[in-house]
Structure formats: C-alpha cells, structure tokens
Amino acid sequence: RTRSIGFPFCCLIRRLQFPRLLLLGVTCHAVVCSLWRPGLEGSASLLHLYSNKSNSEQGYCEREVRLASSLDFWTLSSENLIGILWPSLAILLTSGYVSPAPVLPIDPVKENYVRKVKNCVFSIAFPTPFKSRVHLVAVSKQVLEDILDLDLSVSETDDFIQLVSGEKIVLGSIPLAHRYGGHQFGIWADQLGDGRAHLIGIYMNRQGEKWELQLKGSGKTPYSRNGDGRAVLRSSVREFLCSEAMHYLRIPTSRAASLVVSDDAVWRDQFYNGNAVKERGAVVLRVAKSWFRIGSLEILAHYGELDLLRMLLDFIIQEHFPSVDVNEPNRYLDFFSTVVSETAQLIALWMSVGFAHGVCNTDNFSLLSITIDYGPFGFMEAYNPDFVPNTSDDERRYKIGNQANIGMFNLNKLLQALNPLLDPRQKQLAAQILEGYPILYDTRFRELFKAKLGLLGKSKGDDDLIAFLLHLMEKTEADFTMTFRQLSEITQSQLQELSIPQQFWALKMISKHKLFPAWVSQYLLRLKSNMNDSDFERRKRMTNVNPRYVLKNWMAESAGQKAERNDFSEVHLLQQVLRRPFQKHSAAETAGYSSPTPSWAKDL
Questions:
Q1: Name one Pfam family in it (predicted).
Q2: Quick one: three-class SS letters along 77-140?
Q3: What single DSSP character describes residue 27?
Q4: Are 354 and 444 in the same domain?
Q5: Distance between CA atoms of 19 and 169, rounded to whole angstroms?
Q6: Is 297 part of any domain?
Q7: What's the N-to-C CA distance of the chain in angstroms?
Q8: Which of 107, 149, 363, 479 is catalytic?
C-alpha cells in the first residue's frame, strides 16, 4: 500500500517489479556480481528506499506492524556501507526520490584468497557452504521477533536454515569481510580482519533501527591468515548463549539470532598443547548495530590512509553517534570523549557481574562500547582478581582485575589512531580526556557495587565497605555471584545475629573469616543511613541488580557436550534460565527442556 505520493514515483515502484524473494546460492558468484545487489534497506513487508531514515520518518509508505511469516519479502541491504544499488534504481537517484548512501571503499580484488589488503574498508567475500547436512541448534525468539521482524515459525523453514548457515544469501546483500588491524596482547599484529565472518547485510526493522547481520564460522576470507574460516560447535554454543545472557544482564552486547551445526570436520587444538581433535563446524548469526572496532581505525592510521580514516570516522559518527555533530571541527574530540566514557561504563558493568572477556585486544573492542567477539570468556566463580579464563594468556594480561587498565591501554591506541587528524590543541585536549578515564571508571564501579549492596546516598566509608567485603570474599574463595545474591535475600536480623541459614552457602563460607562480624557491623550501620528505606525494599532492590544465574563455564560445557550428540535440550534449558537471570526458576518452568536434568539445574 502506498499513500498519495505522486503518480510518477508510484509507477516507478510498480514497474521495477521487485522480486518476491531471491535466495542466491553462493556458488553463483557471476550472477550475483552482475546484479550488483540491490541497495534497499531490509523490511518485513515493504521495501525501504532511504538508507538513513525509518519507514515512519519517511512518510512515503506505511505498513502493518506485524511479523513476517516467511522470508519472501524480507530483504537485506549493503547500500548503507558500500553504496551499491540496482542499476534499475539509477533513475530514482537522478529523479531526486532517493538520496545516495555514504560510500566506503571496497577492495578492488574480487577473488577470495588470503592477501594483504590496502586502501579499503571491506572486501567482498562469499560464505562457504557446509558439505554435510545442517541442523538448527537454537534460535533467539526475542532477536527474531524484536529485531528482525520474523515470526518464530520462519526458523523452521529451509530458506532460513540456508540463510543462517551461509548456503544462500538474500537479494539485496553483498557479503563483506571487514579489514581491520589491532594490538594483540599489547603488540601490534598488523592486518587482522574478519577471518571467519561475513557481514551479510543490514536490516532496518519496524522501529527504524538498523542492525548489521554477520555470520561467524562461515568460511575463509582474504583475512583468514592461516585459519580455516570455521568455528566449532563447542565455542559457538558458548557465544550464542553468552551474548544473549549478557543482554538480559543489561550489559551492552552483540546479539545472537541463531546457531546451526553441520557434520563437517573441523580440527582444533583446544588447549594449545599440540593435540588437535576433530570437532563439528557451526555457524552463529550475530547481530549488532555496528561491528566497527578500535582496530578498524588503527589499520588506516598505521598505513597512512588518512583520507579513508577521516571518511570512516565521519561515517561512524554520522551513523552511530547522534550526540556528535559531524560538521563540528571538534567532532573527533567529542567522539573520543564518548568512547572513553562508554568504555569505562562497559568495563565497570563487566566487573559488576564477574565477567572476564578473556581477549581484550584492540580488535575486540567495539567503538560503540558493546561486548563483542565472545571467545575464551568466563564468569568468575570464587572471587579472585587474578581470574584468567583464557588458557593461552600465560602472562595473565587479561585477568579480570586488569580489565580496567587494559581499557585505558586500548583507548590510548585509539587516540594514537586519531592523532593524525587532530591539531596540536585538539591533541592536548584529547590527552586530558583520556586522563579522566580512571575517574569515570572508579565512579561507575562504585555506583554499581553500592547498588549491589543496597546502599542509598553517599558515605565516605562506602569504598572501604566494598573493598572490605571483596577482601573477605577473596580470602575465603566465596562465590562472587551467589555472595551478592544471598546478601540480597538474607534479612538484616539474620545478619545481625550472625545466624546464616544453610541455604546461604556462599555467605556461610565468608562467615568463617574472623573479620566477618566486623564487616557485618559496618554494613548494618551503613544501611541505617538509607533514607526512607526498609529491609523489604532493600532486598527488592538488590535482587533486581544481583543475578541468581550467570553462564558458568561448566554449564556451557555441559550443554556443548550434549549438543555434540545432537541433543540440544540443555542449550534450550540454559536459554530459558538466562533470559530471566534475576528470578528464581521453578522446576515446572524448566521441565521438559532437558532430560535427565543436568546437575546445575537441580537447584532452580
């Protein structure tokens, strides 16, 4: 349906005869390249013609707010990134009905082989289909419905399986691999890039939000270096579950729409001890507002591609930083200030749930300050500031207690990449912005941990109270998650009497320390200073910020082991539990998701 927008425009739309659906096999490269992909934003019903405005903002078309029951009219676009349109749409551009999208240069070499790439942001690279049958392991109903406007039933179709496994691509998309560099473990690693990921397009949903869809584990690209371009089921289960778990913990993150597995053999040396074993290849469909990271800018600055650096920065600011005026001479300072502030916020949030990313290289740090690239991450069990989930991190560089410092290091590398575009005065101001990072981090860390303890207002002893508790937790090796959760559930009278019920096992561990009574006295005294508060309200607040469930490594491993046998029930059970991490789940709620019930789920 169209409004009365002028006869010529309506006729053009009808005469173009957009296809109902065209899923092209990735083996048909010649056909795809000759079409050059339509540059239309994705839509669950009508096609969008403006790359930077939502359907409601345009005022040209209207549609019912409903979910698509098939992929027939569901489209993706690459136009917003690389500016390629159907040749048949050129008339619309020249007639003034469509504004050309910003253009980021593409690698002129179209062949897919590993090489050094220069003077571009993306390379065209098509996914490599699996040779064996593909099985759907899991989908995120919330991502499908709330972000991609797809009804859950679509995930049961062959078209969906072919799309999310990389076997076929949607018309409107040119699969891309992103070129970036980065500092890995503190050392410049030169060109890195998407070595096993393909950005298959951008989707604009019914809220006018644009989301970039990326397949991970979908085959080789020009940036694969010595890799095979694949991901295995074990690590893919972890990424699928953790990215969704982090979202429900209210931590900015990429999302996971689906997980599929094949019977293709992929060899991996999991423990880096020279003993590679055969595993199953898998693909995760990840979505994020943007996949640009610090390394996206570093590679351009390193090779002196300053015009391209400026172009990419302006694109990122215009698309993703609405508070920054892209025409402002100090826009790069404003951009940097925002990234510094939001990075401090993100890492403080990680710390508040005991999350260690594991590989905090600059190529894994998002410019949008969201959590991306879930690899050897881990949620801390016993509180230990030296906790390292990554077995290859021999120097413990990325231990959980060092994440804030690594944030400072990475932001400094970002500043170095920006420096060629700054004048002397701006460089001085940018250095001052970076110097303010520790204060931003400490402030947010304090706010989060005060909330975890149910503290209201300010007191000069708050930092000492928090540090005192963490010291006791470290000495007694108390569980990080459950200590704060049980403090949320125990009453003040129970604490006052030091009578810790058996059900609060984490607190009982801490209570064995000789200084625990002293901490309890300080804590209860501080709670009395909460204005207009009650013990009921305190516990209510605290249970809303202290999760009962996080994705412990052994939970993910258990689910992954079952998935290897094509038993995906435990993955589904974890999805159910981690969607509501702050609530206690009843056995009835989780019945039927896994049989027999895994050991970790018996106390739900």
A1: SelO
A2: ECHHHHCCCCHHHHHHHHHCCCCCCCCCCECCCCCCCCCCCCCCCEEECCCCCCCCCCEEEEEC
A3: T
A4: yes
A5: 14
A6: no
A7: 50
A8: 363
Of 96 and 424, which is predicted with more confidence? 424
**Is the CB of residue 198 less than 8 Å from the CB of residue 177?**
yes
With a cut of 70, say whether residue 199 has pLDDT above it: yes
pLDDT of residue 603: 55
* Residues 116, 217 within the same domain: yes
- Angle at the Cα of 260 (from 259 to 263), degrees rounded to 5? 145
CB atoms within 10 A of CB 584: 13
Which residue in the block uniquely carries the two structure tokens 């890799």?
227
Which three-class secondary structure state does DSSP give residue 264? strand
The closest of 594, 595, 297, 254 to 419, measured between CA atoms, is 297
CB 217 within 8 A of CB 282: yes
Extended beta strands in 113-254, E state = 122-124, 135-139, 168-170, 176-178, 183-184, 187-188, 197-204, 210-216, 231-232
Task: Please report the DSSP string for 497-547 in residue order.
Answer: TT---TT-HHHHHHHTSTTHHHHHHHHHHHHHTSTT--HHHHHHHHHTTS-
Domain of residue 556, residue span: 455-603
In angstroms, the CA 367 to CA 212 distance is 14
243-263 tens-digit pLDDT:
999 999 999 999 999 999 999
Same domain, 112 and 239: yes
Q: Considering the domain boundaries, does residue 218 fall inside one?
A: yes
330-338 CB contacts, 8 Å cutoff, 24+ apart: 330/426, 332/418, 332/421, 332/422, 332/426, 332/430, 333/422, 333/426, 333/429, 333/430, 333/433, 336/414, 336/415, 336/418, 336/430, 336/433, 336/434, 337/433
* Rounded-to-integer distance, Cα 351 and Cα 364, Å: 17
Sign of torsion, CA 98 103 108 112? negative
Give this prediction's pTM.
0.87
Please state which of the ranges 103-107, 475-479, 597-601 shows the lowest mean pLDDT. 597-601
Region class of 6: left (phi > 0), else alpha (psi between -120 and 50), else beta: left
d(CA 321, CA 108): 29
Catalytic annotation present for 363: yes
Give the single-character DSSP code of 600. Answer: G
Has residue 60 got a pLDDT over 50?
no
pLDDT digits 0-9 by tens, 263-291: 999 998 877 777 889 999 999 999 999 99
> Is the same domain home to 565 and 487?
yes
Last residue of a domain, one of 396, 418, 450: 450
273 and 166 within one domain:
yes
Neighbours of 59 (CB within 10 A): 10
User: Which amino acid is present at 427?
Assistant: K
DSSP state of 52: S
Distances from the Cα of 263 to the Cα of 19, 134, 566, angstroms: 34, 7, 10
Distance separating alpha carbons of residues 536 and 300, to the nearest angstrom: 55
Looking at the structure, do residues 466 and 442 belong to the same domain, yes or no?
A: no
Q: Are 326 and 317 in contact (CB under 8 A)?
A: yes
